[in-house]
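Box 4.2: Ligand-aware structure prediction
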Amino acid sequence: MNPWVRATLQDLSGSAVDLLVIGGGITGAGIAREAALAGLAVALVDARDFGAGTSSRSSRLIHGGLRYLEHGHLRLVFEAVRERAILLRLAPHLVRPLPFVLPAYKGDRVPRWKIAAGLTLYDLLAAGGNVPRHRTLGKRALLQREPLLRERGLTGGAMYWDAQCDDARLVLATVRAAAERGTLAANYMQVTGLVNSGGRVTGARLRDTLTGDEGEIRAQVVVNAAGPWADGVRRLEDTFAAPILRLTRGTHVLVPRQRVGNQHAVLFTSPVDGRVMFILPWTEAWTYIGTTDTDDVSGPDDLEPRESDLVYLLRSANALFPAARLEPDDIISRWAGLRPLLAEDPGTPASSVSREHRILRGDAGLITIAGGKLTTYRRMAAQVLKWVFESLGRTGDGPGSASEREPLPGGGASVIESFRAPGEELGLPLATVEHLLRTYGTEAPAIYALCRERRELMAPLHSEHSAIAAEVVQAARREFAVTVDDVLLRRTHLAQETRDGGGAARARVAELLAREQAAARLPANQPSGDRD
Ligand code: FAD
């Protein structure tokens, strides 16, 4: 059985696993991987596509969280910078070092000396990590690096390093790593109820949201990693469970990089309201601006960015880069995610609520993990696994260091460079090869192999994007893609990175997917054409 194709309801219903994980965002994927590495029989289900929740709607940073230093969360920052170093090693194609410029202006809430002290502390906490140390810069040196920044009031600033990731593909890589280790992984598989026997949760009721079919899976332990939906899942165990989450919306907009003119990532305080924001380069062509942090959320499905959020982001960026003059029509795409923050202190302003997570066990044994961030998902998973082992009554083993050592699929830094030449020899343009290396790392040869078998798969899917047809085949065969949106939004990002939302690629993607799905339905003894 191909581990990278969605497990069916039949696969799951017939199974009795040690651990069922509800939610295939980064948190659930990380737990499944950690548990599978520890030798448990695991199932991982998501009601939508893997990563379709918050985990593909982030600021895409793997970062220590410089601003948490201001709130004294030293331990959180220390853990995060350590995880940053680990992820840069495990998945160098998806997690890449990113230089930041931090401009300082007259009258800023945080004075320059405090920024310098904070960055020194940041470096110290990250000692031995794999990004360069910060440098403080005078006004002229700063403007040399970021010539289009507003000059008025600028006093200098600093450069420091963090990391940027492809959040959706980091989730996928983590799910695939878990599946490689035997995890039954199914997207579009919703948990509609929990099975309870003798006062304990012993499984879950499942609904295949593609077919409407229903079934049940048995599991010794069930973990709720449903992010913003976690309170809803907790109510499947206890109808009266009090909410533990407070949801805030974070919106981003993608705009042409040339319009902004930023050379680096920029961390700044919005001249509109003094909140910390980012302007982040994504590709040569695009830059994104984020984020808002607003409380006007009606529930976990309320993901539509508000018009006022878009205006706020553009105004803030225009104030920092006056030549940009960004207008709503310049927005290529937008995305909003809900932060599953802990509701411990409802009086705290949204942006100063700690992103720390919390693990709790319900009366019938359901383990819930709430809060956290992308950056620390591996660490969170290891902690949850300890709880799982406790529930299983196992002692002596538990999470090992394998998740810290084993590269994610496509990881393995040293060999990535050697995959450039074979791509070019095949006749792919350099830009396409670069895109494939960034997306697939050491798995790029799998795409080349598809291109060799069927030359038409070398064709771009869209005139404004480097993605090629072979990637749809890869997505269907090895990346759990089921729908056209899975491919456009989370496997290739065509939906976000083209002016028509990937519209021009839709028909071709649908055709390629349908062909793969038809071939997969063939009985095993029938020839399957050119499938591998
Ligand atoms: P999700 O990704 O939301 O996953 C939960 C999953 O559970 C969903 O896919 C959902 O479909 C599924 N689910 C729900 N109910 C059910 C059910 N009944 N049955 C089956 N499945 C179900 N962190 C960083 O480290 N760096 C950043 O730059 C960063 N930026 C952020 C920016 C924004 C705007 C936001 C909102 C968050 C940001 N974060 C960042 C935090 C980080 O993105 C989140 O903490 C993380 O993605 C949460 O992942 P999760 O798996 O817990 O939740």
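In the box above, the bound molecule is flavin-adenine dinucleotide. The mean pLDDT is 92.
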